[in-house]
Amino acid sequence: MKPRLIPPLLAGAVLSLLFVATASAHAGYKNSTPAMGEVVATAPATLEITFSQDIQKVAGTYGIEVTNAAGVLVTSGASAVSDADRSLLSVPLQPNLASGRYVVNWNNT
Q1: Given its phi and psi angles, is residue 71 left (phi above 0), alpha (psi -120 to 50 degrees) or beta?
Q2: For residue 80, what is the DSSP state?
Q3: Tens digit of each residue's pLDDT (9 = 90 or more) over 62-93
Q4: pTM score, two decimals?
Q5: Eight-class DSSP state of 60
Q6: Cα separation, 25 vs 18, whole angstroms
């Protein structure tokens, strides 16, 4: 499936995240935290994406990468599928992210 762009997500006054689906099987994007269009006072510690259905919890078949404008990865750990809600995928972000544009690439094949 081709990548698809999802409208920008604002986090912080000028900290924005642009979501790009790098691969997607059946579970489509449903929502995220921070929400699309939401403006928050500080950068989030974690990025969460909820999908339209459960995703497989098989190593190498899911993930989220967040990069800054220079293309540098700003996550601080591995992506994880929630045991309590298999439609929820999250990744921790580095603390104190600077204001700016960030790109989110996710997959859930």
Answers
A1: left
A2: E
A3: 999 989 889 999 999 999 999 999 999 999 99
A4: 0.77
A5: T
A6: 20
Hunting for tokens 């994880």 — which residue is that? 80
- What's the Rg (C-alpha) of the chain? 13
CA distances from 65 to 41, 84 (A): 22, 22
Length of the chain: 109
Question: How far apart are the C-alpha atoms of 104 and 69, rounded to whole Å?
Answer: 11
Complete DSSP assignment for 50-106: EESS-----TTSEEEEEE-TTS-B-B-S--EE-SS-TTEEEEEB-SSPPSSEEEEEE
Query: CB of 36 within 8 A of CB of 47?
Result: no
- Residue 86 CA to residue 102 CA, distance in Å, equals 25
